[in-house]
Each structure stands twice: as C-alpha cells, then as structure tokens.
Prior knowledge:
The chain is of the alpha+beta class. The chain has a domain at 26-144: Chemotaxis protein chec. The protein contains 6 helices and 8 strands; from the N terminus they run H-E-E-H-E-E-H-H-E-E-H-E-E-H.
Amino acid sequence: MDDTNTVNPEENAETLEKKEKNRVKRFIGSFNHSLDSKGRLVIPQGFREKLGETFCIAPSYDFKSVAIYPTEKWEERNETYERLGKLNPALNQYLEQFYALSYDEQTCDAQGRVLLPANIRQKILRDERDMEITGANDHVRVVALTASGDAWNKFNDELPKLLDMIAGLETQKE
C-alpha cells in the first residue's frame, strides 16, 4: 500500500492552524455613532474583536478620514513606507505629517469606546461629532458623516465610469 497520499494528522492540524492564523481579518459593514463630549467613539463589537487588544489610529492615506489598524497591519504599512526610500523628500514630508497624527498602543475602554486624540479630531474630522464607521478591508475607517455623504454622492456620479473600468479589467483577464 502506498503511503504517499496519506496525511499525517499532526501536519493537517498544523496546516489548519497556520491557515487560521494567516487568515485575513476583513473589516466590512457601516455604522453611525457620535463622539461623546470627551472625544470618545464607540467601536462596533465585531470591529473591536478584529482589531485586538491594542491597535493604531492614524490618518487614512489621503488624510480625509481616520484609519484604525490592527497592530500587524500597521506594521505592514510602515514596512511598505520604509521600502519606498528614506531619501525621497516628498515621501519624508508626507511621513512627517502621517506620523505626527498617528498613535499606537491604543485600546478601547470597558464600554467599547476609543478616545480619538484631539489633534486628529481637529485636523482630519474637523471637530464634527457625528461619524460613520466603516470597514475598509484591512482597517476601520472613521469619517465625519457630512464628508461621508459627499463621498457617496461623488461615488454615485462616477459609478457608470467605474463600472466600465471594472468591465475592462474583467475582459483583460480573459
């Protein structure tokens, strides 16, 4: 009898464990919450579980919203920036502002709230109180509700062009 196709149960369990550990935590969905008087925001339960005990708060890549990253995704983002080159003046200028508005080792309190630092509230959220909290694949996105409405309107206006572009990508695959 040929044993080349049999699977060792220990190897199978190890493989499943690795797959589970490497499984991507996708953040999906959308919720509305308001900042309280101290600048705290309720993070939805499902998002809190995926973020883990500690996480990082930073501007989104375009500085139009706040991004909340699980620590491992934050580290991946930093490694990407480091690979881009430290001698590039434009990148250094961008990173100076990015890191000035970034906060690591953040946690939620017992009620599931996170304190958004005043600096990022003022510069990114413009001190608005009503927020949209959305899943953005590998992070949580927080944007002022008024800006969210503007982005939705722009998306609807551009949707026919976007669908054409997506259809073009599908035909390129074939």
